[in-house]
Structures are given as C-alpha cells and as structure tokens.
Amino acid sequence: MGRAPCCDKSKVKRGPWSPEEDTTLKNYLHNHGTGGNWISLPTKAGLNRCGKSCRLRWLNYLRPDIKRGGFTEEEDNLICTLYGTIGSRWSVIASQLPGRTDNDVKNYWNTKLKKKFFAAYNMNLASREFPASVPKFESGTPQDHGTSSSCFDGTLPYLMDVSLGQSFDQQKQISQFSHSNFLEVNDFGTCGSKSFTNISSSQEASSLPTSSILGLENNYTLWSGDESGALTDYGFEPPADALLGNFGY
DNA sequence: AACGACATCAACCGCCAAGGG
DNA sequence: CCCCTTGGCGGTTGATGTCGT
C-alpha cells in the first residue's frame, strides 16, 4: 500500500503561483502566522493549494528576508567548501548564507558552481599533482560525504579556491559567514544564520516579526551548539562533525 | 526571423524523521 | 510501542528565457 498523499492532487491548483495567490498567502501569514500547521493553512487562507506548496512558496520566494540576485565570490567559496566537506546538505549550507534558501543554493550549485568547482579541481589536478585522495584531516578517519559521495569517488577538493585555483583558507572563509555559533531559528524556515548582534543591531531587526503579528512566540531563538546541546547531532564522522560544530550543529 | 540547444529556477515528488495520540 | 500526521529535505522535472547558428 502506498503512502497517503498530503492532499488530493486532483483538487488543488498546481504550477506557478499568481500574484493574487502570493498576496493572499502573504496577507494570511502576516495576520495569522502558520498556526503551526501548513497542511490546513491553504483552507484557512482560502487558497486552493497544497499545504506543502504554500510552505515552499513562502520559504523560497515570499519570505521578506530572501536575498535575490547573483552570488558573491565569497558565497561561491563557502558553498564549495561546505559541499566538499558535508556533501549535498543544502539546508545546512544555506543556513550559512543569510538570505539564501536551500533551493537557491541547490539550483546555483547544479547550474553553475558544479562546473566551476570541477573545472578548478581538474586544473589543480593537472598543474599541481593534486592528490587523488585528500586526507587533510588529522583524525585519519574516512570522510563522510553524505549522499554525494558517489559523485566524488572519495576524492574531494575541499580546500580549493574555485575561482582562483588556489589554496583556500577554510576556517577563514567560514568565520566570515558563521559570525558566531548562534543560529537564528524561527517558524518560517531553517535559513538564516546571523549573530545576535547582527540581528539586534541591523535595520532588519526592526522589521523582524513580532509574535503578535505572526502568531509566534520566540521567533528568534539563539542556540549555541556548545552550550545548549539542543541542536541535532547529525551523526557525521569527523571532519564534518568538527566543521558543523563551527555552525552550532 | 526562425529554429534548436542550452541555461535557469520555480515547483513538485517522494522519502524520512519527529512528535503526538 | 505503534500508527498517523506533518514538517523538512534532497533530487528531479518542466516551463521559460537566452544564446548561437
């Protein structure tokens, strides 16, 4: 027996969202929040859409803090470094790129960065006898590359500056983005890693939703991976565990 | 101008894990 | 425990745009 679908696909609208639907969803979320239930949200909001579709539309497109436009070189480098270390954990990678969604990062990787990544990698292989296997971490344990391992056959150029084909300072790059070990957590998605000071001092902070507006409490909770123990242990072997530790995971 | 190839990205699919009853 | 619902995630698809011939 197959798994029951989350909604009746034949009765809900699919495909691209209209501006009217976007407005309806935004207005509803602004006034009521998710109510902790995306599945029932479209009915309450008067949308003939699947709840999952509403959630995706909000997270990937309608959220006010979405950053649109091209990725910077620093973002490129960070994505490549993280991909080389933890694999295709797009939500984790996106959490280190404020304003970027996992879908954005995934699309960007698949359409552009992947080629750049391997072009730089091949260049390194040809010019500098880049080792066929890269045991950079002192632990000596095999790397866990997540679901992407088959793509690499165990070989990862994760210390490479893809734009320059030069050695890449992983810790430096990561520190530029992770700011601190605090993660922003809210009810509207997993994206957005910002330091407390960034949230509290920026103009963005003043525009953050209050619990009354969005029907939420503790919209922004600060978690420290070292201290709270609240964050998931993803079960990575070193070095991924060590790297994720930099982000509070 | 017309056409095909390629690139982009929004949206969907299906699986998995968490949590509540 | 077990089952069910839901949220979250990564992989994939398909519509649309852009470029080259």
TrEMBL record:
<dbReference type="InterPro" id="IPR009057">
    <property type="entry name" value="Homeodomain-like_sf"/>
</dbReference>
<dbReference type="GO" id="GO:0003677">
    <property type="term" value="F:DNA binding"/>
</dbReference>
<dbReference type="Pfam" id="PF00249">
    <property type="entry name" value="Myb_DNA-binding"/>
</dbReference>
<dbReference type="GO" id="GO:0005634">
    <property type="term" value="C:nucleus"/>
</dbReference>
<keyword id="KW-0677">Repeat</keyword>
<dbReference type="InterPro" id="IPR017930">
    <property type="entry name" value="Myb_dom"/>
</dbReference>
<dbReference type="InterPro" id="IPR001005">
    <property type="entry name" value="SANT/Myb"/>
</dbReference>
<keyword id="KW-0238">DNA-binding</keyword>
<keyword id="KW-0805">Transcription regulation</keyword>
<keyword id="KW-0539">Nucleus</keyword>
<keyword id="KW-0804">Transcription</keyword>
<protein>
    <submittedName>
        <fullName>Uncharacterized protein</fullName>
    </submittedName>
</protein>
